[in-house]
Give the backbone structure.
Amino acid sequence: MKKQTAAITAVGGYVPDFVLSNKVLETMVDTNDEWITTRTGIKERRILKEENKGTSYMAIKAAEDLIKKSGVDPAEIDFVLVATATPDLPVAATAAYVASEIGAVNAFSYDLQAACSSFLYGMSTATSYIESGRYKKVLLIGADKMSSIIDYTDRTTCIIFGDGAGAVLFEPNDEGLGHQDEYLRTDGCGRQFLKIEAGGSILPASEETVKNKQHYVYQDGKSVFKFAVSNMADVSALIMERNGLTKEDVNWLVPHQANKRIIDATANRMGVDADKVMMNIQRYGNTTSATLPLLLYDYEKQLKKGDNLIFAAFGGGFTWGSIYLKWAYNS
Ligand SMILES: CC(C)(COP(=O)(O)OP(=O)(O)OC[C@H]1O[C@@H](n2cnc3c(N)ncnc32)[C@H](O)[C@@H]1OP(=O)(O)O)[C@@H](O)C(=O)NCCC(=O)NCCS
């Protein structure tokens, strides 16, 4: 018997109904469908329009979808981890509310924030708890209401982001499937290029910060692009190399959906063909913490037990990394 590993045993997802297409964005800012499509690969994104609903609304929907599909008893879930850059409230963990609402009455919970790498890092946390033998059922949710922090008069950011949520359940596996290896990195110099300036402890909210639009995402797109391309490609190649994986061994690349050109560069560096690259950026844009689980949600039926998946992400901070995971079930 192989050592106990931590595997994904169920997947759920949710995206809001409202579709914000490139065509509609053309009426809001000085942009056009052709520019957005060729520079990013995005055609449309989903926006949570319901009033007074935050990230938890989508996280709960994704978790409920997983519970319904898998039949897992929420009372048996030990830990609920919500990966998000847009919590419901600055203080009071979104995860605590989500856990209560889905009936995870015996769980503890907290949020994890690492910008677009939140879900990837969450996979590391969730699997470590299980590999240690301490817990048996960990629900990891990636959810973001990016529309709550985007300036829809800024054409350099409003075309990129969307709202959504995805959830996965991690459980012990004694066939050696699930999490195999990871390589996670950060570089704090990156925060000048991608940030929300105000609303934190350095610059608390004031009339001035609102007037100056400092509560919205600021991004130096060119610099972020450069770092993202080289770092995502480097870590993905590294994780293949140190696990002795050839391009034929890799069944799927599961890349953060920030920009199709970044995804293509990563796949090229790994030598992986386009038909092995999960992609839904055209429909959802960049949903930050939700991109990776929404890919699993969309591709679940095509995944086979034993498939080798390479996850890769890059985000604000900077934060980035790659995880090698063996898929554990046939749908
Ligand atoms: C944002 C991004 C799509 C911009 O693409 P780019 O090719 O770098 O474009 P640039 O920023 O160099 O802008 C090129 C020109 O297009 C213009 N432009 C910017 N946004 C535009 C838009 N939505 N529509 C039309 N033109 C636009 C710029 O003003 C610039 O014009 P100029 O040459 O006259 O100054 C790209 O930099 C990117 O994807 N960066 C990484 C984003 C990311 O991954 N973020 C999340 C990290 S997880």
In short: Residues 31, 35, 39-40, 116, 155-156, 159, 219, 221-222, 224-225, 228, 258-259, 286, 314-315 surround coenzyme A (CB under 6 Å). The first strand starts at residue 5 and ends at 14. The two ends are 24 Å apart (CA to CA).
